[in-house]
Design a protein that fits this description.
about 270 residues; globular; seven-stranded mixed beta sheet; alpha/beta; about 40% helix; single chain
């Protein structure tokens, strides 16, 4: 089993925590946009209270360990590895609970190039103990507003993990999905599951709009979030997101493998 100390060292060495690649400028911009309720950063969450920029900075300092000083406006942002470890422990506990009750689970990511392997290993482990890993709306067309205008994507699943792809882009088993913050894929998946009168997810695992969109609808949701993703931490603070784990969500995919082993061991799901 990977020890807590070894994982802490890995988090820092891989820049998953400590000084990360996400810039302070980008994080502060996201807080400004969230305070203005810009849907590009609210990710499907409708905050229950007013969150000003200073409120968000205090929250992110508490949840992630970023500097609370508003005069600190440049350079790399910082994530406290102890907060990441605590988040992973809470994340693993929710997975363990889902496994114990054989809950239906939906996995989805807006970072397929980076996080597909992490989520897929968790989906495999939950499936092995009897959880239904849901894959509704396979191939469904979704129109998503982007900074380049409305773009059409298709919902796809790889090893039980949902993502969106541009039409015509399909590598069997591959992670060639598109980066997205949108909650629309989650909503389309839930609508298809309901129309088919199949099981609905008791737990949603993922990031971005998958987690915030589910939490907004009252579904238990857990996920990973960077310092420029305040929506997940606001959702956690307001009780709609069960667990938000602070870490850099865009490092090399191989760097998440030790986290996978750690979470599966903590959840008693190692095979």
């Amino acid at each position: 089993m990977l020890s807590t100390g070894a994982l802490r060292a890995h988090l820092l060495a891989a820049r998953l925590a400590g000084p990360v690649a996400t810039s302070r400028e980008l994080s502060l911009r996201s807080y400004r946009l969230f305070a203005a309720r810009d849907p590009r950063v609210t990710l499907g969450l409708d905050p229950g209270r007013v969150w000003g920029e200073r409120d968000l900075l205090r929250l992110m300092a508490d949840k992630c360990g970023v500097s609370e000083d508003p005069a600190h406006v440049s350079g790399p942002d910082v994530i406290d590895p102890e907060r990441t470890l605590a988040g992973l422990d809470a994340f693993a506990e929710r997975l363990s609970d889902a496994a114990a009750r054989r809950a239906p689970v939906l996995f989805g990511t807006g970072h397929p190039h980076r996080l597909l392997g992490f989520y897929a290993a968790l989906a495999d482990a939950l499936s092995a103990v009897g959880c239904t890993v849901l894959t509704p709306a396979q191939g469904r067309r979704i129109d998503i507003t982007t900074r380049f205008g409305v773009r059409t994507y298709n919902l796809d699943y790889v090893r039980g993990v949902a993502m969106v792809r541009e039409p015509g882009v399909r590598v069997p088993g591959g992670d060639t999905g598109a980066h997205t913050h949108s909650p629309l894929p989650l909503r389309v998946a839930l609508e298809a599951a309901a129309d088919a009168r199949g099981p609905l997810p008791a737990l949603v695992v993922g990031d971005h709009g998958w987690v915030c969109g589910a939490g907004q609808l009252g579904i238990e949701a857990i996920g990973l979030a960077d310092t420029d993703d305040p929506a997940l931490f606001v959702g956690e603070a307001e009780g709609r997101v069960a667990v938000a784990v602070p870490l850099d969500d865009a490092v090399r995919s191989a760097y998440y493998l030790p986290l996978t082993r750690y979470v599966l061991n903590r959840a008693c799901l190692s095979q």
